[in-house]
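Researcher: I've been going back and forth with a colleague about how Mediator of RNA polymerase II transcription subunit 4 might be arranged in three dimensions. Neither of us has a model we trust, so I'd like an independent prediction. The organism is Tinamus guttatus, in case that matters for your notes. Sequence below.
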Amino acid sequence: QILELLIQRDGEFQELMKLAVDQGKIHHEMQLLEKVVEKRDSDIQQLQKQLKEAEHVLATAVYQAKEKLKSIEKARKGAISSEEIIKYAHRISASNAVCAPLTWVPGDPRRPYPTDLEMRSGLLGQMNNPSTNGVNGHLPGDALAAGRLPDVLAPQYPWQSSDMSMNMLPPNHSNDFLLEPPGHNKENEDDVEVMSTDSSSSSSDSD
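Model: Here is an independent structure prediction for Mediator of RNA polymerase II transcription subunit 4. You can compare it with whatever you and your colleague have in mind.
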């Protein structure tokens, strides 16, 4: 009986060994499948990242397209004819605003445009300097009476000629610089007074 029990137990052990081998194979297959799943998961995450980047690019492109459509619509509503642009450009070019002064020639050491130092010493540069007299609209009385800007505010450019840099004469002192006409002397004034006296006396006699 003991021998039969041993044989029976050995048969059971053999079956359990076969089952263990089968389970080992299954476990190995499960490990392989887990590796495949991890690889597929990594691929899915990479694709998800690419999809997010593509979504961001598409959203940016759509936004820019909408902005361009708005700009096009705005340009259509406020369209300006080419003739008006040409007229405006001709007006600008006619005022020497886009070219050098007429007195400037190639080889001239002076620059055909004001330098930074000259711009700072001009009217706009002095207006930004609070320590300069005549700022904020308060000019010296002599300058206002003379109808000119003070020297500190007068723009100085190298191409300005002497006649352009002359200050304007005040209206109330214009007679000081007028030349007397020929023959205008004391004797002529006496003759005029005598003639006016004679004419007044003759008119009184006729009355």
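Researcher: What would you highlight for our discussion?
Model: I'd start with this: The longest helix spans residues 2-77. After that, consider the following. The chain has a mean pLDDT of 70.
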